[in-house]
Amino acid sequence: MKKILLGAMLVMCCSNTFAQSEQNKINKDVWYNFMQAYQDLNASLFNYIHTDDVLRIPIDQNQILIGREYKDSNLNMFNLWNERKIKQRIQFGFINRVQKGDWAYETGIYRLTRYNGYTPEHHYGKFNVTLKKVNGTWKIYMDADTSEKATVSESDFLKTKALQ
Q1: pLDDT tens digits, 97-130
Q2: Which segment of the chain is annotated as a signal peptide (predicted)?
Q3: Is 7 among the domain residues?
């Protein structure tokens, strides 16, 4: 009986360690690069973290952008930000994170901070993404977000598990 219990504990421990390892890889491949791309206004890095057939769904705009269409719109947006010398930072707080094999699904709240002079502006939204491992690297396959008519707030963000 002790051997069975010990074996079960080892299986649970090892599977939890593997899951945590994959979560760290997702953070490294996707989320840290996402934050860096936004801060550095780096469209190439931002597009790199998305699959070539990415689905982008900005819910508040009632749109779906697919693959190259989305990546081209990113280039235009990042070029505009660079022209305007935008200073910004994006942070993510997670509500749910689940991964199985080469797929993951994550939900949470983002906080985008724009620095206009001395007063930072905060913008919030709910996001849900499907991630796919491509050639050993995690990438965003589907990304949807909404501000829910600007009702998502700092208090919502503070209820999440923020990425450090």
Answers
A1: 999 999 999 999 999 999 987 889 999 999 999 9
A2: 1-19
A3: no
Distance (Å, whole) CA 61 – CA 76: 17
Distance between alpha carbon 102 and the CA centroid of its chain, in Å? Answer: 16
- Residue 98 falls inside a structural domain: yes
Spatial contact of 126 and 143, defined as CB atoms under 8 Å apart:
no
Q: Which helix (H) or strand (E) holds 26?
A: helix 2-26
Instruction: Write down the pTM of the prediction.
Output: 0.87
Contact 81, 114 (CB under 8 A): no
DSSP state of 62: T
Which helix H or strand E contains 39, and what residues bound it?
helix 32-40
- For the chain, residues with pLDDT lower than 70 are 1-19
- Distance, in Å, from the CA atom of 134 to the CA atom of 132, rounded to the nearest integer, reads 6
Q: How many CA atoms lie within 13 A of 3 on its CB side?
A: 0
Beta strands in 3-154 (DSSP E): 50-58, 65-66, 88-100, 103-116, 119-134, 137-146
User: Residue 26 — φ and ψ, nearest 5°?
Assistant: -60, -45
Amino acid at 87: K
The CATH number given to whatever domain includes residue 105 is: 3.10.450.50
**Chain CA centroid to CA 73, Å:** 18
